[in-house]
Specification:
alpha/beta; TIM Barrel; TIM_sf; gluconeogenesis; cytoplasm; globular; isomerase; binds glyceraldehyde-3-phosphate; 12 helices; Triosephosphate_isomerase_AS
Length: 253
């Protein structure tokens, strides 16, 4: 049985008060409604991390994640935040390789691999994102494009390191657009990635690796996507900012 994970990426949203309200509601609903066997990960912006962790407390199966970390352990890197510091403030996960980081901040595979190694060394589990732009999808080269993103990054890890990795497939054309991939499109890619993981890291690693879908996933479409054999949950943007919707997604397995 693979882990089922629903991770909320708040992106660059919410004031302190809004973040506290949202977290309190999510934690309470999760406790009351107890979606069976699901791990929930809240990934707020950096200033929210510690207060959100305080609200999560010792709630079973609810974890804190960050949206980024740097590729150095410490030092004179003004404005950056290292993985070990995130861990010391209670984070368990970190999102890396998100298409917004790749596009707006020029993050390439070498940098992402270095950041991934830092995260793992600090005891953080990477939620490693991959996904193709629309023109690649239309050219029908999407599987090769996404496989290359993984070959240049997480497939370089040792078996022990890779065992901590969560992969998130996020077709860029579906992010924040309201245009979600169909369940069949998600399954096609997830199955292809699992087959490539088997080649790169072995069948046991492929069988164990959670692969999440992200891109306009919401309370309405989550159950059809999560029903697919190789979809192990979601990385949720917009819908993670609404407590009722986010919990509904967590109950969609
Ligand atoms: O990290 C989350 C993804 O980018 C999906 O965002 P979205 O659910 O708002 O489309």
């Amino acid at each position: 049985m693979r882990e089922k994970i629903v991770a909320g990426n708040w992106k660059m949203n919410l004031t302190f008060e809004e973040g506290q309200k949202l977290t309190s509601e999510i934690v309470q609903m999760f406790r009351d409604e107890n979606p069976a066997g699901v791990k929930l990960v809240l990934n707020p912006p950096f200033p929210h991390l510690y207060p959100v962790k305080k609200l999560i407390g010792d709630t079973a199966n609810v974890f804190l994640g960050a949206q980024n970390c740097y590729d150095k352990a410490s030092g004179a890197y003004t404005g950056e935040v290292p993985a070990a510091m995130l861990r010391s403030f209670g984070a368990s996960f970190v999102i890396l390789g998100h298409s917004e980081r790749r596009a707006y901040f020029g993050e390439d595979s070498a940098f992402l691999l270095a950041k991934t190694k830092q995260a793992l060394a600090a005891g953080l589990r990477p939620i490693f994102c991959c996904g193709e732009p629309l023109e690649i999808r239309e050219a029908d080269t999407h599987v090769a494009f996404v496989v290359k993103q993984l070959e240049e990054t997480v497939f370089q890890l040792s078996a022990e390191e890779f065992a901590q990795v969560v992969i998130a497939y996020e077709p860029i054309w579906a992010i924040g657009t309201g245009k979600t991939a169909s369940a069949e499109q998600a399954q096609e890619m997830h199955a292809a990635l699992r087959a490539e993981i088997a080649k790169a890291q072995g069948q046991a690693a492929a069988d164990a690796c959670p692969i999440l879908y992200g891109g306009s996933c919401n309370a309405e479409n989550a159950s059809s996507i999560f029903a697919k054999a190789d979809v192990d949950g979601g990385l949720i943007g917009g819908a993670s900012l609404k407590s009722r919707d986010f919990i509904a997604i967590a109950k969609s397995f």
